[in-house]
Write a structure and sequence with these properties.
By secondary structure, the chain is α/β, with parallel strands linked by helices. The protein has helices at 27-38, 55-59, 64-72, 80-83, 102-121, 151-163, 178-183, 232-250, 276-293, 312-323, 328-334, 342-348, 373-387, and strands at residues 5-8, 47-48, 127-130, 167-171, 190-197, 221-226, 254-258, 298-301.
Length: 392
């Protein structure tokens, strides 16, 4: 299989835009792609345009009436009958309000993840990254948590139908990957894994260790809920131990990973205290597992991340550097304080309301420790032990 990685991107993904003050802003994609270009880590030859997901593909996950609602509420002036039902479909709250062109934009995002999966499974590339994807909260008949169509679930259903492959879905967003979990909760051929801040304190309020799947799919669902203010070492201890044991046990044909980067201490929508270190290390582990168990087949998508200036571009760029075996990645191990391209900083600083970072990784010497570190670490280990109790 070729070692080449592809970046799946279409400008229509930039139209997935609720409004200018919404935290899920498409400028995150532009900032990341521009950083990779400035770092000479991405060229036009790396980019593959996706197609729009077909209605038949969306129907593998979403209810027909819900798709009709999304289409109707995508009009510039929606019909009053659909406006009256918008709340029923989750499209009238502050998180996921309907907007003009919503169906087309969300369909292109779903199609982007399908395109990425198809490129990897067909042997066109070993790895594919679709940063516009990762809308993991969308349910079969309801939008939720900034997510209209669940692109990951649509892509997994596509892979199951067209390639009959066993899929391991790995969700590292700080919010539980609920929509994907429920889509395949009884399917033994799709294993869903999510590491996240416990739903006791954070949206969507799910993802507890006892959620393990049902019927034939019991045991093919793993959740690692972590305590608020978890730091790098505890996060990585729980992630590495669990994902290595799970992958060895499940033996997937394909890994699809979601890389929301909202467990960072600077993120405004969670309570975690992690640094850029975890976003440098987690992709390396997944990369290794993909080559060990899946002949390299690895699809990655974006997701959450709401410090759009200081965190998201660096975290997603580090993911691409890993997927492409870029020489910058090993250099970061030798020189942790390696500088970001000055051209990128000067281009965007004027638009940012905060000082942009100057280094790829965070300088932790100035970070304050968490007073309850030992207690948090112990509680996380308890959750890890319960989650792994059925694994050899």
């Amino acid at each position: 299989m070729p070692g080449k990685a592809l970046m799946i991107h279409h400008n229509k993904a930039m139209n997935y835009h609720f409004h200018d003050s919404h935290p899920f802003h498409p400028i995150r994609l532009e900032l990341t792609l521009d950083l990779l270009t400035a770092a000479e880590a991405m060229k036009p030859a790396h980019i593959m345009n996706p197609r729009q997901a077909t209605e038949q593909e969306l129907l593998q996950i979403h209810q027909p009436t819900y798709i009709d609602a999304v289409k109707a509420l995508s009009a510039t002036s929606p019909n009053q009958a659909w406006l009256d039902r918008a709340e029923q479909f989750g499209l009238q709250d502050e998180d996921t309000p309907f907007f003009p062109g919503m169906h087309e934009a969300a369909s292109y995002i779903a199609g982007g993840t399908v395109t990425a999966a198809d490129a990897v499974m067909s042997g066109k590339c070993a790895h594919a990254l679709h940063l516009g994807g990762g809308l993991h909260h969308a349910l079969s008949a309801k939008a939720a948590g900034f997510c209209v169509y669940n692109d990951v679930s649509v892509a997994i259903a596509y892979v199951r139908q067209h390639y009959n492959a066993r899929v391991l879905y790995v969700d590292t967003d700080v919010h539980h990957g609920d929509g994907v979990q429920w889509s395949f909760y009884s399917d033994p051929e799709v294993c869903t894994y999510s590491i996240h801040e416990t739903g006791k304190y954070l949206f969507p309020g799910t993802g507890f260790v006892q959620e393990r799947g049902e019927h034939q799919g019991y045991g093919a669902c793993i959740n690692i809920p972590l305590q608020p203010y978890t730091e790098d070492d505890s996060w990585m201890e729980c992630f590495e131990q669990s994902i290595r044991r799970l992958t060895e046990h499940f033996k997937p044909d394909l890994i699809i990973s979601q890389h929301g980067c909202d467990a960072h201490a600077l993120d405004p929508l969670s309570h975690m205290h992690c640094s850029m270190k975890i976003y440098n290390e987690m992709p390396a582990i997944l990369h290794s597992l993909a080559h060990t168990y899946c002949s390299g087949r690895w699809v990655a998508v974006g997701g959450g991340g709401y410090d759009i200036w200081r965190v998201v571009p660096r975290a997603w760029s580090l993911l691409w550097l890993e997927m492409t075996d870029h020489p910058l990645k090993p250099l970061l191990r030798q020189q942790p304080q390696m500088k970001l391209p000055p051209a990128w900083i000067s281009k965007w600083q004027g638009q940012s309301s905060v000082d942009l970072p100057h280094e790829w990784l965070d300088d932790l010497t100035h970070w304050e420790g968490i007073p309850r570190r030992a207690e948090i670490t112990a509680k996380n280990r308890e959750s890890l032990a319960v989650a792994l109790q059925d694994f050899p």
